[in-house]
Fold:
Amino acid sequence: MKPLSLIDSAFLMLEQRQQPLHVGALCLFAPPEGAPEDFAYQLAERLRSSGQAVPPFNRRLITRAGVNFWEEAEDFDIAQHFVHLALPKPGRMRELLAMISRVHAAHLDRAYPLWRMYLIEGLEDGRIALYSKIHHALVDGVAGIRLLMKTMDADPERSLAIPAPWEAYTKRGGKRSLPVPSPALRSVDALRSLAREGVANVAPIFRRLAETRRDYRDGNPDCVGGLQAPVSMFNQRITGSRRFAAQSYSTARIKAIATAFDATSNDVVLAMCGSALRKYLLENEALPADPLVAAVPVSTRKDDGTSGNEVAFALTHLGTHLADPAKRLRAIKGCMDYNKRALRSLSATQLLTYEGMLFAPGAVSLFTGLQRQRTIVNVVISHVPGPREDLYWQGCRLEGLYPVSVVIHRIALNITLISRNESIDFGLIGCRKTVPHLQRLLEYLEEAIEELEATLPDAKPAPKRRARTVEKTAEGSLAE
Structure:
């Protein structure tokens, strides 16, 4: 038996009926050319015949004297984890996303290893889907995506020889992180490390804190404090229902905008999100006067290494107070550049301590709801690097990789995206009650790209868009 770490245990303790803490992914695949009509059935039977599982897929939670442990299950039963489903007709993307919304809202049974996988057929265009979910106490979102990619190959023939996903081992290296900034937990190890390293390593932290507070006090628009976000409609308690929306956007389009503004693709993505959220809140007559604030994971790696996760949470405003798309992008770029300079001036240990001290007041507000006017963040936006080449799974070509993340009380919306070779796949998850008609954000994201493209020197007038209708934005719809 292996005891759970502090953070792994926290995922289990924080889980509530309205707040399941598993992460997931939806993959879309094109079957091989000439595949028989019962291809999905044959694939399901082949996968179901694989009754062996390796860590973390065979780890079952047990509790002894109030302490949680992982135990490797000897009676692993694939029937509890692998499900073959068919969409109801007509099998549009809206039916698929409505199904994912429902199954992602359901808790995983703690009597079994904490994961489940669904092979879904019945899409009208002939594609198949694979939706998987696994508890955050077992792997984080990035590790989960990497685990999925381990079961794929650039060669369709070689991909047929790769075992079922639950037989693919993943090494859990590097530091874990909660889905939102959590100073109390993230700083424990950092404080221990600082104690070992000596007092001299504390000085840069207080210097950085003083500079941040001075910039905030002086009104530096690029500096975002730990209790600066206005309370919005996204900062309410959530219910157990979920709404999932997904869409792919061209990498080339986003890079062209980034180049024109001397920005990064991530800056452009944040500007798209800021524009979409501004329009959504205006539509709901709920736009705060001050800009929304997002928690954005930022790499702080100073070398080209691949081991570990050198990541910190940066707080950036999303320019929702600005109507002009170009000004919004420049403002977000300035804020992200400020964050990167600040974060890279500290070591990994110093950075975690700095985060804990900076975010503590906002975290107290977030988890208690005592502060009614300000909070730490309004939304979490994560950008995960994905495969840079075409991949195949069991002979099927990967055509979409959409993350399905978590939402928690008082952060009712999460936007996670994965960069692939030709597209950036967005996955939006939100509380169905707190964030009504979430799928409209997909249309607003597309409009955001068009608005930014219209600011480019060689821009051509965009074709007129049809007026939005209720049918066009029905539950779970995917822009096509």
About this structure: Residues 183-387+400-453 form a domain with the Chloramphenicol Acetyltransferase fold (CATH 3.30.559.30). The chain has two domains: 2-167, 183-387+400-453. Residues 220 and 250 are 34 Å apart (CA to CA).
